[in-house]
Amino acid sequence: MRPETAPANAPTVEDAIAVLKANDLGTYTVPTHGLYPFQWNWDSCLTALGQAHFDEARAWTEIETLFTHQWEDGMVPHIVFHKHDDGYFPGPDVWQTNRPVPTSGITQPPVAGFAVRRLFERASDKALAEQRARALLPKIAAWHDWFFRARDPEGTGLVAILHPWESGRDNSIDWDAALDRVPIDGVIPFRRRDTEHANPDHRPTQAQYERYIGLVQHFRGLGWDSARLHDASPFKVVDPGFNAILLRSCADLAALAEALGETKLATDARARAEAGIAALEMLWSEPSGQYLCLDRVTRELVESLSVGGLLAAFAPIPPHRAARLATRIEEVAATAQYLVPSHDPTDPRYDGRRYWRGPAWLIVNYMVADGLRAAGQPAIAERIEADSLALIAAGFAEYYDPITGEPCGGGKFTWTAAIAVEILTMSEKRS
Ligand code: DGY
Q1: 248, CA 20 to 30 Å: which among 9, 215, 277, 291?
Q2: Residue tagged active-site, from 43, 152, 166, 170
Q3: Is residue 3 part of a domain?
């Protein structure tokens, strides 16, 4: 049974801060040493939330460093390869994006708008926050513009991801069918490094990696030209979780812009959020009681009950949808000790230790709980946060088996520690 109270040896805020400091390389933080030795996009934005509790200036720097490497077209890459490290594959030699500081050529869930508003509103140093937020505002707006231009060419209100790595939920069951269509002829032979740092049973399969690299080679062959990638990609999926993060960031950017007197930017961002929320209805599945992915190649919903469809709660969706998602999460709770599994445990394809095919992740828990609390569902939000704190009793792992609580993937993980600081500090303030 899941413990009702935190064990005596439960990690403290100080323990979590020690992890953040150990992974801090000065102007950016690695997700964990060894497995991920560079700067990752959404890791950094969520990390800043934890850093802000003990060093606000450092938190702003984390996000600013990421945006220093924004592409001219507005895209913010998913990895910045600040310095050489051959312990990771695929490195800059595979991506070949031809940047002054090498980066990957794809993006990641755009949590920056949300994170920057949260840093700004909670800041104790208001002058510092205004100056740093004002400088980031147009850069985040340019990234959002890029999304709707490059990833929603038909103007549906929702954007597509073109690579599973963009979703952040790399090997989710959501992508299986779409990924199977990615050709692998001509994929260069490669040596994976992730399985040298982490248990191979916790990581994506070799067959999935071949397709991940096949997509990278395909986009590289198109010169990383955003104007060509969407239509030419064999993998194009509209993920409700990814879109919810984007739409929440648009809504938060609008609020931030309003507070900073940037009225035009606020109006545009709000209009995007509203249009996107209306379009999310296309992804609602009444029989499933949650949102589903849409395959933009086949134009069909993907029958896969993943946490992507629950993460939609992070966006300001209609209250009746949030209420149904809360009920759906309660249904899932009947089959898992710890919320929120990244995939429904009753699905035969579920795998409780393999990355995004079942494990629970604290960052996702945090976003789902945040959205549900804002939508008037505090009970389930509290249950999710309590489960998150119960999980970190086993250490700040990358992710956890939602039935046994076993820590999986990388250890001493930055964003897990950052979210622990957030949940521990904010629940203290609320009580
Ligand atoms: C990895 O290398 O596992 C990452 O998730 C890709 O960004």
Answers
A1: 215
A2: 170
A3: no
